[in-house]
Write the structure tokens for this entry.
Amino acid sequence: MTTARKNRLTLLHAFSTFRVGGPQMRFCALANHFGDAFRHLLFAMDGHYDCREHLAGGLDLDIASVAAIKGDTIGNYRRFRSYLRESGAGRLLTYNWGAIEWALANRPTLLPHVHHEDGFGPEEAQVQLLRRVVARRILLARSTVVVPSRTLERIALDIWKLNPSRVRYIANGIDCARFAAKTVEAFPWPGQGPIIGTVAGLRPEKNLMRLLDAFARVRGEFPCRLSIAGDGPDRAKLEARATALGLAADVMFCGTIARPEKIYAALDVFALSSDTEQMPTSLMEAMAAGLAIAATEVGDVANMVSADNRPFVVAPDSNALADALCSLLKDDARRKRIGAANQAAAYSRFDQAKMFAAYRNLYTGA
């Protein structure tokens, strides 16, 4: 090992999965930005590392060589704890409930621990599960807990009862200029009429069934199209639903797109139909791209969008979402004004420079 590598702080990142998603893309942005300032060990509980394609070449990054066996809590504790001792890592960073076994393995404390909580799966979309509340309260009591939304901050303080000095709010950030650039080549969609679009993992908590149902109603009033960018376990069900609703010709499932800015550049309205979110990256990207947004009122969404856009953040209901989409499609001038206001808000609140500075301090213990 070179002297430079020995002197580099090693960060061990434990995810439930490293498929493409908000926390994974944030990690990629941070790792790419910091370059060789840190060494990274990366671990996904499910063994999937699809999001690696978004990491720059030449990073000092390795996959952690340790096995995770689902349901083998005691065995995982022993394997993870042994790896924590032997890996040379200087910090343990865990991401959401799916990686909580690493927090368990770190007790009694071996490494300084930072836990990132970005939101919840469908099982906790409406209510916190008591056993998880208790586990977080115990396992994270001595950890630094990072949250990207004020909603999660309140949960961490009021429900998990964590020490306020250990809870740190760091807003997510994006490269606003990348999505706002006038030179972005729009993704070529076949057909005619305005395009409603979303960028999301095709998972239950994103409730894209709700978006399809809303679009079916909107399509009855306007000659429009729907773009769904992203992939995941619900894709086959969603495609079947689109066919059952007679929408197959008007809905495009385009999978994961390496350059998502091309998607946003082609859209007229962005839609978010989730049951649970906190500070969704796709919403920030859509705002930076200058789009008006119709969204369900979850997490910090209503406070993220511009004041002009707030009337279109609605109850998590397909009819309410359809009403918001119809209203935006009917009024081109208003839609463009809202898009401009969203873009200005994104630049003022969500540009990534602040996020980079906050995470550098977090990683180094400043």
